[in-house]
Design a protein that fits this description.
The complex is a heterodimer of chains A (about 475) and B (about 550). Chain A is mainly α. Chain A is about 55% helix and about 5% strand. A two-stranded antiparallel ribbon of chain A has the order 1-3. A two-stranded antiparallel sheet of chain A has the order 2-6. Chain A has a two-stranded antiparallel sheet with strand order 4-5. In chain A, strand 4 and strand 5 form a beta hairpin. Chain B folds into 3 domains: about 140 residues, FAS1 domain, CATH 2.30.180; about 150 residues, FAS1 domain, CATH 2.30.180.10; about 180 residues, Jelly Rolls (Sandwich). The model of chain B has no long low-confidence stretch (mean pLDDT about 90). Classes of the chains: A mainly alpha (about 475), B alpha+beta (about 550). Chains A and B meet through helix 20 of A and strand 6 of B. Chain A: It is found in: Cell outer membrane.
């Protein structure tokens, strides 16, 4: 009996101990990381999260696609040693398992922005030094980045899931279906129109801050582009005029065209340029003159022969006889090239010349504000800066449109714009100008495959990319784009 | 005693338990697969709403189990509606089960064989032309993009479309078809006649007797003929002002109506329209001659970056060549293919040019895959190669061989071997030969040209020092030259750097006074192995610089 009492006295404390000790043990907060609840408490954290939005764009997974989606299906580049996925895209032979169509890096950026938009408010409530104005500016920047990402997606896929809430807990819809093109564009427009007011005109710290962050100018450029894509020409004119009226941007002098815009970067003409304080991997690996993946198509070099003094020609846009993309790989007009560890380029999304030419396009196509003379003046500004001679075309709608497309091709060669330019021109009025795309096949074909490549370009649905097969496998609500359904 | 009883009981129990346990083998009577992917048959059976009729055909023709077996097949599988429509039209029956006539079942077998390829081919491998492998009936299927709209609109054999494609299974690829492919039964002229676009040309075929010649599917040695015919359509003729067979005959052989005579100009014209090489449009060589059925003549095939030019004159004038009208070309038949040329295709007299004759790859039997690598065949299997004494020989092909097209004709134990050369335009040439030499077991031969001995003996036993390798000048003085730099194996080793692949200069002055095919013969001086790679003719032109051994295309 005595023994039993002794046993009971030992057992009871042991039981009590185990019961009480459990509480602390069951807390599962990670000790080596910040959690959502601990983050979003002050201004600095929100600024850091916004920097994450820019940072997510600032990597090859994102910039590769911005460049290649905009160039490969058009006729600007030929392959030196491109991989199979890229070669297939150059023929517009696309299929859902081609990893080049993966959009995940864009949705990463979108989610970063959504996180800022969802949680910035609660941080501001907890941080007295966080002003309403700063909060609005940060949210506007996030909105603008998100709009840019969606606009790129819509130009390439036409229809994608429109996700406006952050994926921060398991209550969100992990299986979103696609939204229509017009739903997405409507969202982009309303976001941008809202953001413009709250955005800064610029940032005084440095040119890199000024060009590398979303400003009023950046939002208005994207708006001009979106309106033009959506055939809302009057709105496009209005947005571009608002940008011009900021009085902040001007064309750089012709003699400084290559040096200031492309070699140094962040010129007066630049509106939004991604900044790289490290090697810009996409440009470096694609165009380094010692071992390029792509070279300019021969016909591009011929384009610049028309005007002997075109400052955009040899050792500016391209390098001959090296057959290089000099715009990114070169140093100066003597034909010096960047070494492999000197690719500190910026990546230009929008510059003033682009906005002026978009405005010209809108003036030609608008029915209420049609002004061909104004359009001529705008095209001529770009033309004369480069060639030194006035543009010699009749002021008629079709002639001006042709001159405009050609001028854009020469001015923005290799800047990830050509395919969208061709597609935008081709798709007007129900693909009235599909020929613009069909003739690409002839440029790309060898002696045996004209019919095949022509076939890949013949269906207008094929001008939009397939949704990557992995996404389709993971998301039962996602429907493959029509051309690629098998 | 009691313990003994217990032991018996316990032992008995243990034995019973053991037997019960041991019998329960989990692996018994189950079939095991190396993969849980479905086979072709399982995939088809999983989609009866599309494929049940074809399954019935497979069962009826006893190919059902074959497509369950290990392998990598391509199955072109007609959908239920396609099968239904086909058998309705052919036999006027509503379902496969109603087909009972043994002859009809034989035909169904032919259909299944015609729809199956022994290697897996995804649509990414489809081209404008033929697929890379033959079906089990020995025919090539063609794929065409002419309808536009990308892969989804590809037509097989210019008539049947894809319903669903690239369906993967563990033992192959399935492409669902919206129609049944009709197996090829007709030879080229019959197909052409049925299509009805080339009536004048078909009439010319008949009048000259070539209709029968081109309709022979198997030659006297039992191997399959393949003809490639270039024909003018009636539309092309009418552009030239020819609106009937009489117009054509009057234009080409006025006053001579003996069209069956091989010397008749119309007869020669028709003979010039065909070759025994098997060429879909994309198989035309980049820069070479193609021998025609008309003896001593050839087409000159040349591809630029963007187009195929046949018989381009080298006058520098534009547009002196003929090309194919692709929409009316690549029409397959049982024994070949026909194309439509875009203008009157007259006999062409070429200028001498550098010709490399790969003794294996340039043979029609190689091109139509009748003779495969390592396959020992008698000399009768080759139309343009002969040897004595009779005995089976083979060719070797492997990507690590430092040889033109990575193959050689592997012959030994012969007294003589001879080749019919390609047509050589008249002119003066250097003639060289390359084999794998430099080994004491190799042969020493004397070369004969059209029956006459030519050059010094070809000594394949010579080592480096005997040839003067690698000193180019010394080699030249001893009658040898380096191999070409551009002929390499998969590891990048080039013939230039392989002493054994050096070219032997048979003669520097070979005069060919007329355009024709010649006979190139090697007679043994010392017996031994002779792995022959290629023979070449380099025009001797006063203006041409020295041969720099970079590449033969220069």
């Amino acid at each position: 009996m005595k023994q039993n009492i002794f046993k009971i006295f030992t057992i009871i404390p042991v039981i009590l101990m185990t019961l009480s000790s459990c509480t602390g043990y069951l807390e599962l907060e990670p000790k080596d990381n910040l959690t959502q609840q601990e983050f979003w408490k002050n201004k600095e954290q929100v600024s850091a999260a916004l920097a994450g939005c820019y940072g997510s764009m600032n990597q090859a997974a994102f910039t590769d696609k911005v460049l290649l989606w905009g160039e490969l299906r058009a006729e600007m580049l030929v392959s030196v040693r491109a991989g199979g996925n890229q070669l297939n895209m150059m023929k517009n032979y696309m299929f859902p398992s081609n990893a080049l169509v993966s959009w995940s890096s864009f949705y990463k950026t979108i989610n970063h922005c959504n996180l800022v938009l969802t949680f910035a408010d609660q941080a501001q409530a907890q941080d007295l030094s966080f002003t309403e104005q700063e909060l609005n500016r940060i949210k506007a920047e996030a909105l603008t980045i998100r709009s840019l990402a969606y606009f790129i997606l819509v130009k390439n896929f036409k229809e994608v899931p429109l996700i406006l809430t952050s994926t921060s807990n398991n209550q969100v819809d992990f299986y979103p279906a696609k939204s229509t093109e017009s739903e997405i564009i409507t969202q982009i427009i309303s976001d941008l129109e809202f953001a413009v007011d709250d955005l800064n005109l610029g940032f005084s710290q440095s040119a890199a801050h000024d060009k590398g962050k979303m400003t009023k100018g950046a939002a208005l450029s994207i708006l001009t582009d979106v309106y033009l894509w959506n055939e809302q020409y009057d709105e496009s004119i209005d947005a571009s005029n608002r940008l011009v009226n900021l009085g902040k941007y001007n064309l750089v002098d012709g003699s400084e065209w290559f040096n200031q815009i492309f070699f140094e970067g962040n010129s007066n003409e630049g509106i939004f340029e991604l900044q790289f304080d490290d090697i810009f991997a996409t440009i470096n690996s694609s165009f380094y003159v010692g071992n390029p993946v792509y070279a300019p198509f021969d016909g591009i070099i011929d384009l610049y022969q028309e005007f002997p003094d075109d400052i955009r020609a040899n050792y500016a846009t391209f390098g001959s006889p090296e057959n290089s993309v000099f715009k990114y790989a070169g140093v100066d007009e003597t034909g010096r090239y960047r070494a492999q560890d000197e690719f500190y380029n910026t990546f230009i999304f929008y510059r003033y010349a682009d906005v002026l030419l978009m405005q010209a396009e809108a003036y030609i196509l608008s029915s209420n504000n049609k002004d061909l003379n104004k359009a001529y003046d705008l095209i001529n500004q770009i033309h004369q800066r480069a060639t030194g001679v006035p543009l010699n075309v009749p002021v008629l709608e079709n002639e001006l449109l042709n001159a405009l497309l050609l001028e854009r091709q020469k001015e923005f060669a290799f800047e990830g714009k050509r395919w969208y330019d061709v597609l935008r021109f081709a798709k007007r009025n129900n693909f009235e100008n599909q020929d613009l795309i069909l003739i690409l096949a002839e440029v790309k074909a060898g002696p045996d495959d004209l019919e095949q490549i022509l076939s890949y370009y013949s269906d207008t649905e094929s001008y939009y990319l397939p949704i990557y097969q992995n996404e389709i496998n993971l998301n039962p609500n996602l429907r493959q784009n029509p051309y690629y359904e098998n | 005693m009691k313990t003994k009883k217990n032991i018996v009981w316990i032992t008995g129990l243990v034995v019973i338990i053991l037997s019960i346990i041991s019998c329960n083998d989990d692996l018994d009577r189950a079939t095991f697969f190396t993969t849980d992917e479905m086979t072709i048959i399982e995939t088809l059976e999983a989609n009866p709403e599309i494929f049940s009729s074809y399954i019935e055909i497979l069962e009826k023709t006893e190919f059902y189990n074959s497509l369950k077996s290990y392998g990598n097949y391509t199955c072109f599988t007609p959908t239920n509606e396609a099968v239904k429509a086909y058998i309705k039209e052919k036999w006027n029956v509503a379902s496969v089960s109603e087909i009972t006539n043994p002859e009809d079942i034989e035909f169904l077998k032919l259909i299944v064989k015609f729809h199956t390829i022994p290697t897996g081919r995804l649509t990414s491998g489809f081209v404008e032309g033929r697929l890379a492998d033959t079906t089990y009936t020995g025919d090539y299927l063609t794929t065409s993009f002419l309808k536009g709209g990308g892969i989804a609109n590809v037509e097989i054999n210019r008539g049947v479309g894809l319903d669903e494609y690239d369906i993967r299974s563990s033992n192959g690829i399935i492409h669902a078809l919206d129609g049944v492919l009709s197996p090829f039964v007709d030879p080229v002229p019959v197909v052409m006649e049925k299509a009805g676009k080339h009536t004048i040309f078909v009439e010319a075929l008949k009048q000259t007797g070539y209709y029968e010649v081109f309709s022979v599917v198997f030659n006297e040695f039992g191997s399959k003929n393949n003809f490639t015919i270039l024909a003018e359509s009636d539309e092309v003729y009418s552009q030239e002002g020819i609106n009937s067979f009489e117009d054509l005959a009057n234009l080409l052989s006025p006053g001579d109506t003996d069209y069956a005579n091989p010397d008749n100009e119309l007869n020669r014209f028709v003979g010039y329209h065909a070759t025994q090489n098997f060429l879909y449009s994309r198989n035309f060589p980049d820069d070479a001659f193609v021998n025609t059925v008309l003896p001593r003549n050839a087409w000159k095939s040349f591809k630029t970056d963007t187009e195929l030019r046949i018989n381009e004159t080298e006058t520098g004038e534009n547009d002196t060549w003929t090309s194919l009208i692709i929409e009316d070309s690549n029409y397959p038949a049982k024994n070949g293919v026909y194309h439509t040329v875009n203008k009157l295709f007259t006999i062409f007299t070429p200028k001498p040019k550098h010709i490399i004759f790969d003794v294996v790859s340039d043979q029609p039997e190689y091109q139509s895959r009748l003779i495969r690598r390592n396959q020992n065949v008698p000399s009768t299997a080759w139309e343009f190669i002969r040897w004595f004494p009779e005995g089976n020989k083979r060719y070797l092909q492997q990507s690590n061989r430092v040889n033109l097209n990575n193959n050689i004709l592997d012959v030994g134990g012969y007294a003589w071997i001879e080749f019919d050369t390609p047509v050589l335009p008249k002119g003066k040439y250097e003639m060289l030969i390359s084999s794998n030499g430099g080994n004491r077991a190799r042969a020493i031969t004397q070369i004969y040209w059209d029956g006459e001995p030519i050059g010094s003996v070809y000594d394949l036993t010579l080592g480096n020092s005997g040839k003067g390798y690698p000193d180019e000048a010394l080699m030249e003085s001893r009658g040898w030259r380096h191999g070409y730099r551009c002929i390499t194996n998969n590891a990048g080793t080039s013939q230039y750097d392989v002493a054994g692949a050096s070219r032997f200069i048979i003669t520097k002055e070979l005069l060919c006074p007329e355009q024709k095919r010649h006979v190139f013969r090697m007679e043994v001086v010392k017996a031994g192995g002779t792995p022959i790679d290629y023979i070449e003719w380099i025009p001797v032109d006063d203006n041409s610089g020295p041969d720099d051994s970079e590449c033969y295309n220069d």
